Amino acid sequence: MSNNLPKVAWIGLGIMGSPMSENLIKAGYSVTGYTLEQDKIDRLVAAGGTGASSIADAVEDADVVITMVPASPQVEAIAYGPDGILENAKRGALLVDMSSITPQTSVDLAKNAAEKGIRVLDAPVSGGEAGAIEAVLSIMVGGEQADFDAAKPLLEALGKTIVLCGPHGSGQTVKAANQLIVAVNIQACAEAVVFLEKSGVDLTAALDVLNGGLAGSTVLTRKKDNFLKRDFAPGFRIDLHHKDMGIVTDAARNVGAALPVGAVVAQLVASLRAQGDGGLDHSALLRSVERLSGSQV
């Protein structure tokens, strides 16, 4: 292992964090990980990483700290307080938060970290579990150019499209726009699926030809099998998309942008969650269209 690579601490080893951290190990980085479930830490160790007993233990020697947790409250919980990242990471460390959170949380984190001499990038991702495993994620980054340049080689082990979008919080804003487009796209696909099936068309054939034309999309390519098989094992849970639709509607309201269709889809995501489908993949928006169309789901 080449010793000149930065030492990495990884906090948050979930559906995304586990495969991403393993891709860094494959790229030759030394990775020390911490997460709430011991079996996830064991998985990292089996892949060649090092387990930590706490956040403080994970970050104390790290040159780069990467975080991948569900939402703003978790980012604040791991960053702040006596046992958090800011109190325990060394001065000059680079904190790369890859969670999807509110732009304001990212702005505040960068400001508070700067007081400790810690540099921050917000670097949320798109591409889901498959993109994480295949290391083809799209990574939208907010922060300083110099910090982005320093992080880029490491991010290249995790994703394919890596873009600095502007100052702190900009990565989160672009991610929010991403989640808006994805939800509306899944909803449109779901409506088409129900329409096609009720019309008695061969659904596999229909989706293949649609995906070859202007209606084609990465969403349809990735979610086609979910629709065909009614397989809603989560790559990205409705619960998390619900959180993200809250972020985008709130942020849009703050800047005075109207999201008429986004607001409707946000309500459909919320209703799916209220019906107990929050743990399913976001392609389960299909279930909501089926219910509205009179099917027993």
List the helices and strands and how they pair.
Elements: E1 8-11, H1 17-26, E2 31-34, H2 38-46, E3 50-51, H3 55-59, E4 64-67, H4 72-79, H5 85-88, E5 94-97, H6 103-114, E6 119-122, E7 125-126, H7 128-134, E8 137-142, H8 145-155, E9 159-166, H9 170-198, H10 203-211, H11 218-229, H12 238-255, H13 260-277, H14 285-292
Parallel strand pairs: 1-2, 1-4, 2-3, 4-5, 5-6, 8-9
Antiparallel strand pairs: 7-8
Helix pairs in contact: 9-11, 9-12, 9-13, 9-14, 10-11, 12-13
Contiguous runs where pLDDT drops below 50 for at least 5 residues: none
Distance linking N and C termini = 52 Å
How many β-strands, per DSSP?
A: 9
Question: What is the number of helical segments per DSSP (H or I, 4+ residues)?
Answer: 14
Helical amount: 40-55%
The CATH architecture of the largest domain comes to: 3-Layer(aba) Sandwich
Placed side by side, the strands forming the largest sheet appear as: 3-2-1-4-5-6
Largest sheet, described in full?
6 strands, parallel
CATH class of the largest domain: Alpha Beta
What is the string of SSEs from the N terminus onward? EHEHEHEHHEHEEHEHEHHHHHH
> What is Rg?
20 Å
Active site: 175
Domain 6-phosphogluconate dehydrogenase NADP-binding: 7-166
Organism: Streptomyces nanshensis
InterPro entries: 6-PGluconate_DH-like_C_sf, 6PGD_dom2, 6PGDH_NADP-bd, HIBADH-like_NADP-bd, HIBADH-related, NAD(P)-bd_dom_sf, Tartro_sem_red
List keywords for this structure.
Rossmann fold; NAD(P)-bd_dom_sf; alpha/beta; 13% strand; NAD binding; 297 residues; 9 strands; N-(1-d-carboxylethyl)-l-norvaline Dehydrogenase, domain 2
